[in-house]
Amino acid sequence: MADQSKRLETNIDGELFVDSTCVGCEVCVIDAPKFFKMTDPTFHLTTIEEGSVITITDEESKLLFGKAYVYYQPTSDIETNELRDTMLICPSDSIGENKTNAK
Hints:
Elements: E1 16-18, H1 27-31, E2 36-38, H2 58-64, E3 68-70, H3 77-89, E4 95-97
Antiparallel strand pairs: 1-4, 2-3
């Protein structure tokens, strides 16, 4: 379940949010492009030698991959219900709903 304390700053204000556990798989962007976008990765691997193994830490992985964020909040019960389906298919369970943050 998404954690409000890990809410990404890139989300717009409102009930729906993506937290920092997002793995950047783009499932939500594909399923509900009206509501979600991806941040640009802030770091890119430019060269990888063939056959080499790269081990990265969790902190490094945050730099390698973009994260999803909410850029449009649902404005109707129909949209909110549609987004619940998107929340269910998120493999990292990073999409949350916070009723106390509604604006």
